[in-house]
Amino acid sequence: MTTNSSKLATQLAQAKGWDNLLRQLMLAGKALHPLSDEARDEHSEVQGCQSRVWLQLTLDSNHRVAMLAWSDSKIIRGVLAVIQEKVNELSPEQIAAFDFDDWFASIQLERYLSQSRASGIAEVIRQIRHQAAVND
User: Which domains does the chain have, with CATH numbers?
Assistant: First the structure.
């Protein structure tokens, strides 16, 4: 199992039942560092998501990824905030090697995502890996 030291991920892992997990996701969405309105364009929009999702990754001076994202869905904003917290701890190389599926299972997230949401999040992860590699 992939370890997680992220605050938001830990809160999800400790949530009991769908109602508590949903509450934690909604609260996490409020912690999302959003992509600006101006940056939400066709270049940053992730295709293949049920909800609209925009994503942008940059590399900081310490060779760490800085992820900004936004969604029109409150639940997906929460999922993005949890992902953002983890991604912002990683280098591009670590992102390439990180087992997001295992991590989602360890924090209970995968079992509560509908198939369409899970497919959209899989596309978000593909975009994160792609943008991290391009920015490296």
Answer: 7-135 (3.90.1010.10)
